[in-house]
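Follow-up to my post from last week.
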Amino acid sequence: MPVVRIPTPLRPQAAGQDKVEASGATVGEVLADLGRQHPAIQERLFDGAEIRRFVNIYVNNEDVRYLEDLETPVAEKDEVSIIPAVAGG
Amino acid sequence: MSAALTPDPLDRYSRQVRFPALGEEGQRALMNSRVTLCGCGALGTVLANHLARAGVGHLRIIDRDFIETHNLQRQILFDEQDVADNLPKAEAAARKLRRINSTIEIEPVVTDIDHTNALALMGDADLILDGTDNFETRYLINDAAVKLGKPWIFGGVIGSEGQTMTILPGETPCLRCVIETAPPPGMTPTCETAGVLGPAVAIIASFEAVEAIKVLAGKKEALNRDLIMVDIWDWTFRQLKISGLFGKVDCPCCKHRKFEWLEGEMGSHTTALCGRNAVQVASRRPEPLQFPEMAERLKGVGEVRHNAFMLRFATEGYEFTVFPDGRAIIKGTNDIAKAKTLYSQFVGA
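User reply:
Got it. Predicted complex:
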């Protein structure tokens, strides 16, 4: 099953886990399954059906915006990462 | 007279000149280059330290803030005496760096970078460096860099993790291509709420510094084209591929050349300083404030002291730090409206 890597600021919404297994054949399906398992994450990631503009999604190391966005295919061993912007410094 | 008695200016850099990929030619390019460093806190002090020692010929260091004791954990150019002397960060950094390398020019600028001064502060630079702690300033830097066609290097750190990317306008995705908008306040941790480790900052700033050296020495082929992410607590290092975003994203900045931050359509100049229970009030003045007169006026209502760089004034549980350009940081509130009222009451409209 694909694995979703949860960034530090979202871990409290995912029972403290840094990785969550989620099923689906596309990025959209995998994130929807993540949302079913951890509803609090759903709201942080999505504004309606759209991914919030300050959240970036990668499949392995590729940004889905130059692939097929939420339609990007995800294979069994793929890793989906939620990458937030890091503000401090 | 023997010419051999005159020290070769390259001698002090011999250990990096011997590094073959840089060499003497690269060193001479560094010595003839100009850098604008935006922000001189945790990232900025590490960046300034590396670049001054490496021999960057002209270093402009811009920072709006003064030094507090809790900065010393990670802001490597400052010490307890600087806190006691109430020095602004840019000035304290310049004093320290001049003792490190007297052969380069260091230009401290104590101001808040905003849309009115960004182009002037960056226009003559060969490279712009991000030592800031907020996305508002970063989007402004991005606008200015893209408009001017100058390379800049983004860095951000929180907790034990950080990100960096190198932006070459016209060749690589810009900051807004990669991070379209900043998370709204409260949706993202800051160093004040989530903490930050000194080594994490030092690593990201060091990545920025080596990229800076490559840009200035003309070694473009060696530059990073990815979004680098590091977490030093769980030992992860990732190179996320972003080059495919260039031209693909409908970027207002680098595709449509709409510079919303530079045109002042975005961004505020009065901002709550997150997690610090403080608000910065910006009120630009054509003439610098006269601190001795202000101190005279304020001494009946509270405790006041000043030096050439700032005036500090405490009353009613609030602490004001006022800079000559009219800007003030007011501690004791997060309420912007309240801060503006306090400013007009005690500093003046």
